[in-house]
Task: inverse folding
């Protein structure tokens, strides 16, 4: 723990500003919680009374003589800034602002929040919240929240940071019933100062914390979060439940917090790139809260040992559904198993040790496979002759002898196995109720182990001519062409024309068949308004096309600036049309898309996304993706590298020119030895 | 209940053949269970003793004077047939064969099983098992299994049929702890006589059963199962957990039971077509076991009411992830909500009634939305001011007033909400721990309500020339062409040739560019051995191609019979290559595939499957699928109907000619007004 943050988590003196006598008030509950959990000096601050819950009150924090490290503020929003200033004077290190009524609640709240932010620019005091529940530390125990004192969390090795206070109280209540312990629990609220990124940095160095779990709905500064996460995941796993994944969910999230809703794809890419384990549901989060601190999984090849064939089948399904695989057992191992097991048993993985399996048989089989050093799911299903407690004891023995061995018991059943399950929990063995739970945690913890810090050698090596642009409007077609020329991304040959005569001259250069398009930096879907005519075979057809298009544009009062004549490019046999695009994610910066393009783009919807900067691993994944394999096939591997390098070029262009919001090259017509974009747009807004 | 089956579920007299004095033996546990649960006459049959557990024993079932409806057989496999014959003599109606050692355990077991099957062809006695646990009826209570008597299941409205005995005992133990009740529990074992299909028919008419759950790993007769399921799902929902979905899981399943592993795709299509709800995991199955009997969901538009914004976000994500949607509230409803709720609340769906929501606020909001008659997920998260029990009571009131209203409370948390949850369970309200559980059950029960019995009007109307074939070998290329000619599926024009001279003559007919292929009904991948040369532009090229191919085939000792010259067909601009295929599923018959074909088929892997006979709904789904939309776009809707009708033609061909195992038409080159298969194969083995 950075010594500075000791003052937050193990403070010398706490003031409660807004302490209340009214037992229904937040200020009263917090005081009560603090008095139960905190053994230092507590100073209620309140204008109205001299004494609350037997403690002397102060009318102002500055009147307190003793040291105050933390101030908990629970007063109306509009009074908070003045009190913060008092705290600063009193040399309070941390203020936890419980009060709501800030950024989350409309314009006047935003103004109050901005005023506080401005003050904090120069102030030394650090702020948690506003609109938060506060923090809980379990060693030493201290609780600034107004969570029900009955759901007092156990000490443990998992930290939990939540953007939702209400969800935090529910999760802590449920986790406590389930005896899941926490090192620290932090409700960040609107996080105007101490945000998730800063808390990650604090928890990274906290020796009591072996895994960090988060509930996130959005981020104010995606890049600093990623930077902290990347550093932190070198030391301990980070597990995130992200709310607002669906479009509907994102809308719900943005309506209830002040957080910016970024694109879910960008979040998932960012999580993957910083070693974060992303989980889908609250119950997944629980399993990680419980078991992530102690579990390290170095292999994605799972061994299943079961006394129930059906359960082995279901576990195997779960293994493959998660993208893991079953370990193939060597002849040595199966030989050994055949000596241990009855003839009817299955000595191959999933190892079926039969319904009449004794505790000793479990032990012998586990001993035969544990040296393989792969995650083992041990399934116990209570059958007539089964001995759950004795089996649990044998499994415990194996675990205690080899604590690093990833052993994941799954005890199916209810009353008959409840005691056995408790026994396994007591020695901190992860034990699950269903096979898929064990599989999900293996998948997550393996992805953490397999994660390596991203390397950008190709990205850094790729030379892109500096292209500092000064764009003020969208650029479509030939207006945008120069940008791609600089990047050496080939675009279709075309000529700007104003008149029919010009058009006919232009077609001499491009050759027939040619394409006529309307020219404008405003019309996004030229196709839809009849602004594109393809396959023009000769002068006569071009004349007709020009006349009809010009007439149509005029009749429909369309604001065009000119026309453009292009060579008509179609994919050669075996070639394909792809799309290449860039989108500036508000959280994470340029995100590049490469996928099936042309007429069928919206139907097939096969796109690979890459977040800038693009790592070597991103490029490998792209090569192995469907689109990578399509490119390899269509180009016979000749120019696949070149096309893949376009993703880097676009990313660099967008990093350098943050006014570019979107880039579209679609289609990019790809053949064995050629890749030509025939439609191209750059958007600045 | 069909009166016949009364004798199984409410028998007059039970014999236990293989009853044992040894308390460790199955025959002893079953007797114990029976004596606890069954109040009729029990007759132990055993050669060794005169009396077991205080009951007189018989050396043979035929020596029993009184009536015996059911015989439970737990003796070595090789003695079972003789005992069955005795039972038949004694006019026993049902024999439950607990004994293992039959089809599941190798060749000698298969022989024993076949001998019993043969006997059953003419015998009147019906058999459950072998290799099963038996059956449990809860009203009146009676248990033939050797499940631990401590996990005595509660009476309820859900039936459970399981192919895995071990999983059955675990599930019953867990369900019982969770107070989930059952009407009947049936372990089918190897199901040589009474199989899942027959039990579905029995349970269809059982008034105590309102929902049927199954654990399946495979089926011996897929079609009869489907037929029973289709009939049954008219009356009550069927929920299936299918083990062996993954390739690895299917291997595990086939190694541990005698069941045939059919393709998972075929199973999912079959389930969908017969109104079966397919679940993925044991915990999903539990939720359906508990709630399916009472819950009917008529809308896929969900309303969410929550006192925790974060939980509303997570629930919304789950709704969209499941393919459901949030209901859009009318202005009337939001107006009403705005009167009830504080200003800061969200009156749009998900309705956020804020952390300080009182029980009354829950009630008022629910009253405002229940008339919309859509599923409502009511989320409660325990916060400082929350009153869980009082809130649960208000929710109960709403439910009791409108029992048909699909109200699905989700109570987040642990100790603080445990009592409230119990209170809701007691009035049979489904209450969940996490939003996704409520969403999953809404999705499943909605799919059941929305299911309509399949209609085959287009299928039946589609005239296909009777094509009774007499195939003995695979037919590839021009040998297969006549079959597709009869179906009016257009295949590329081609000519069989033996010599170079023939080839040159043939090319005059096809025109250039042409394609030369080796002819053989054995070579599956002609490409891979150099047996296909495309894009031959003129006579000279054709000569060279012919010489080099013939030399190669000769050098490599390839068994070819002739060569084939085809017109070279490539897709016109905007056209696509698709694949059209048929596969005879061992369980469910012809399964037709239509998807992206040609070079990219294996990369894009976009295929829609249809099970024969093809229903009108299948055709609608095909039209709306990616491949349907691609076809519409590529053909400008001109010949999309024709191409879609090919699926019906193939299905009918395969139904009529069960010797056809597979058909491949790939690619089928599709343009605006033409669809030509350029490679085509019919496999008979």
Result:
């Amino acid at each position: 723990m950075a010594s500075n943050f000791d003052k937050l988590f193990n403070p010398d003196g706490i003031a409660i500003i807004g302490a209340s006598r009214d037992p229904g008030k937040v200020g009263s509950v917090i005081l009560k919680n603090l008095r139960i959990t905190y053994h230092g000096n507590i100073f209620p601050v309140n204008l109205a009374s001299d004494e609350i819950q037997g403690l002397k009150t102060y009318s102002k924090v500055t009147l307190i003589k003793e040291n105050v490290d933390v101030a908990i503020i629970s007063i109306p929003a509009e009074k908070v800034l003045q009190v913060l200033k008092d705290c600063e004077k009193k040399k309070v290190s941390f203020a936890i602002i419980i009060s709501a009524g800030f950024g989350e609640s409309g314009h006047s709240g935003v103004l109050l929040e901005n005023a506080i932010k401005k003050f904090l620019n120069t102030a030394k005091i650090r702020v948690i919240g506003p609109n938060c529940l506060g923090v809980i530390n379990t060693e030493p125990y201290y609780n600034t929240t107004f969570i029900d004192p009955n759901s007092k969390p156990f000490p443990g090795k998992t930290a939990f940071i939540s953007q939702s206070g209400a969800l935090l109280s529910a999760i802590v209540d449920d986790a406590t019933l389930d005896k899941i312990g926490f090192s620290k629990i932090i409700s960040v609220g609107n996080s105007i100062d101490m945000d998730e990124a800063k808390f990650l940095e604090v928890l990274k160095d906290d020796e009591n914390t072996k895994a960090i779990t988060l509930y996130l709905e959005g981020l104010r500064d995606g890049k600093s979060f990623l930077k902290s996460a990347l550093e932190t995941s070198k030391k301990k796993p980070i597990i995130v439940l992200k709310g607002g994944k669906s479009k509907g969910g994102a809308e719900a999230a943005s309506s209830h917090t002040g957080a910016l809703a970024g694109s879910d794809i960008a979040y998932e890419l960012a999580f993957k790139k910083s070693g974060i384990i992303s989980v889908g549901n609250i119950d997944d989060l629980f399993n990680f809260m419980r078991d992530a601190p102690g579990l390290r999984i170095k292999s994605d090849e799972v061994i299943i040992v079961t006394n129930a064939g059906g359960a082995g089948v279901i576990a195997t399904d779960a293994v493959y559904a998660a993208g893991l695989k079953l370990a193939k057992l060597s002849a040595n191992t199966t030989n050994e198993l055949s000596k241990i097991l009855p003839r009817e048993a299955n000595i191959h993985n999933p190892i079926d040790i039969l319904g009449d399996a004794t505790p000793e048989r479990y032990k012998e089989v586990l001993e035969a496979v544990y040296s393989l050093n792969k995650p083992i799911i041990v399934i116990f299903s209570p059958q007539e002759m089964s001995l759950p407690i004795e089996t649990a004891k044998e499994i415990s023995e194996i675990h205690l002898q080899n604590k690093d061995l990833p052993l994941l018991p799954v005890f199916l059943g209810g009353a008959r196995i409840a005691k056995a399950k408790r026994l396994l929990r007591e020695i901190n063995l992860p034990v699950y109720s269903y096979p898929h739970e064990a599989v999900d945690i293996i998948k997550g913890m393996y992805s953490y182990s397999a994660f390596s810090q991203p390397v950008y050698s190709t990205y850094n090596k790729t030379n892109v001519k500096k292209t500092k642009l000064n764009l003020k409007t969208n650029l479509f077609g030939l207006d945008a062409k120069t940008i791609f020329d600089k990047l050496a991304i080939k675009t279709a040959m075309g000529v700007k024309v104003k008149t029919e005569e010009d058009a006919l001259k232009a077609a001499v250069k491009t050759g027939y068949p040619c394409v006529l398009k309307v020219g404008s930096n405003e019309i996004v879907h030229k196709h839809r308004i009849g602004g594109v005519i393809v396959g023009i075979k000769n002068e006569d057809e071009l004349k007709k096309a020009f006349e009809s298009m010009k007439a149509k544009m005029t009749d429909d009062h369309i604001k065009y600036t000119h026309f453009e004549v292009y060579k008509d490019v179609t994919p050669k046999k075996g070639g394909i049309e792809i799309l290449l695009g860039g989108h500036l994610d508000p959280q994470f910066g340029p995100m590049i898309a490469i996928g099936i393009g042309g007429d069928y783009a919206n139907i097939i919807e096969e796109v690979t996304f890459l977040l800038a900067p693009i790592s070597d691993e991103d490029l490998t994944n792209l090569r192995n993706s469907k689109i990578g394999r399509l490119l390899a096939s269509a180009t016979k591997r000749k120019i696949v590298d070149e096309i893949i390098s376009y993703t880097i070029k676009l990313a660099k262009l967008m990093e350098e020119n943050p006014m570019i919001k979107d880039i579209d090259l679609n289609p990019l017509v790809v053949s064995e030895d050629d890749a030509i974009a025939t439609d191209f747009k750059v958007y600045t807004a």
